Amino acid sequence: NSLPDYTPLDENATICIDVPLELNPNISGKDEFIVGTATTLTGNFDSTTAFNNRFSGSRQQYIFTKTELNTLGFDAGNITGISFEIATLGSANSNSNYTIKMRQVSQENFSTTSFLTGTFTTVFGPVIYTHQPSGWHDFEFTTPFVWDGSSNILIELTHGGANSANNAQTYYTE
After folding, report:
1. Full-prediction pTM beyond 0.85?
2. What are the average pLDDT values for consecutive 10-residue runs of the chain, which has 174 residues?
3. How far lies 103's CA from each of 10, 76, 134, in Å?
């Protein structure tokens, strides 16, 4: 899979597919699962990034299928964190109102360029998040997300940006 084509709802909107994330569950006797191979980097101008500083704000959604998670040994229970791996800082090292929300969905992919809606659980933020120039960035949830093990998981990431030149380059699965 390559980065998806999308028509933004506004200049700050992005819908993402196949972005590798490290999910930190409190289940299955394992401390973490890495979803995706993370062999490709987004570009400086790509909206699909963990830390968007090219625009004044960002909204992204990711779907992880139950099949994808079950194949890794991921079972129903609490998800307590998530991580993103980046290779570059981008134009700024902080993002305001950094918020991560999650919900269970039946969809396995995005059939349109519209964001999925419904009742989300806010698991992190909003906070001013300062990131390092590269490496894994771990987000320990303030509220665990309880996954039922039979639905797919939708993750929504929103935050403010520097409205400058470059985003942090983020690893993803192609």
Report:
1. no
2. 35 43 49 70 82 89 90 87 89 93 95 92 96 90 94 95 87 75
3. 23, 14, 28
